[in-house]
User: Fold this.
Amino acid sequence: MGQPARAGWREWVGLALLALPTLLLGLDVTALYLVVPHLAADLDPTAAETLWIMDAYGFFIAGFLITMGTLGDRIGRRRLLVIGVAAFGATSVFAAFAPSALWLIVARALLGVAGATLMPSTLSLISNMFTEVRQRALAIGVWATVFALGMAVGPVAGGALVAGFWWGAVFLIAVPVAVLVLAGAPALLPEYRTSTGRVDLLSVGLSLAAMLPIMYATKHAAVRGVDVQALAAVLVGGSAAVAFVRRQLRLNEPLLDMKLFTSRAFSAALSVMLVGLVGFGGVMLLVTQYLQLVEGLSPTAAGLWMGPPALAMLIGAIGTPLMARRVSPGVVMSATLALSVSGYALLALVGTDSKASVIAGFTFAYLGLGVIAALGTDIVVGAAPLEKSGSAAALSETVQELGIAVGVAVLGSLTTVIYRSRVEAPSGLSPSAADTYNDSFSGATSLADQLPAWALDDARTAFTSGLNIVAAGAGTAIAVASLTCFMTLRHLQPLGNADPEAEPVASTAGATMTGEQDDGG
Assistant:
């Protein structure tokens, strides 16, 4: 077998083109943080409608990822990207001029479906364009960095657009991106598809019935706590997941090839990504709240303070694939995660006036996210056969979405429990105000003009104690992930070296599936 061809200028320019929808997806995750008060003034949504405006996007991305990853393998990855980016641009206009809250909720759901086409298609196209493993790892690092950059600048960009125009302008960013991708894709991106196979619609239904209730349960628990409704949703989602797996094992051409999990590298990398993102997701939520509610920074100022963590993410995502050319990627990932534990330790010790320590700790945590997103994703995609890389990419993205959602729900809820156990409303407040104070730290800050200084200080201290305990728990989980990574992935050879154990697993469809590549144009 000859050496894989190295990517040339066309592939690297194509990567720059793929970075545009990737950046857009990251922006869309966080850009609404500063927009909600302004759109609420125009559309007057209820509290439930506001939650759905925020959550519908994430629900439908998570629900459709696996389906869209397989669909791209079957109909063509470039074709799916083109369809998805056109739909994303058109639906963004639909959202920008929404005349009602219900209209906007529907638009956000459709944006989630369109977004689910973009995430696996961009990543699987990278695996086609960069077949030399060192270049592929570096390209995936760039991809991961661009997505994280979009998330980091989302609140700042959203605030600037609302200040200069109106809340709908946030959605219109997608229009020029869609035009550029549609114009450049035929010339710069290759096409790849498998020659046979239909998408099993029952499997699609089961995957949605599994993911949507589970995502709903995690987000519901983050707001209301673990109650009967959340447990019922988990039961429904879990039952559908069992039925989904059983069906995939019976099908000759499954929606998700369960044989992928027979690869130790594939399964271990997914596990490390899940644990790492649960820890990071919860801490990310609390750090942003700390900067705004404890330190009193504006959302824009808090976003700017995220500069050092974003730089650490860049170093992790770009630097570790370069290190992995000389050292096993499993060892590099394990060592970097171990280093990031020091950040969680710092966060476990901060007080109510420790902005610099919080940023320093979160910088180390973000470093760990960079290595998970780059090397972890590369190991997952590299362990899959080429015709299944769309499914592998979708599964990687699903694990990341689920990890962050679970982290926000579980660790956010734990912080709320700790806060409630450590505060007592001062006398003199009305019953409703006392309930608001005792319920959450954000509720306490909303009553700042009614509270004595000591009561607000007590609330800050209680919230910070929750951050300390959650960071300690998350750091412990990251330490376990680091050890697991070392124990299960240290056998991987440095990138570019032959490693029989790391060869992609065989596809369920075997020799009946052949790649049809078209250079485009």
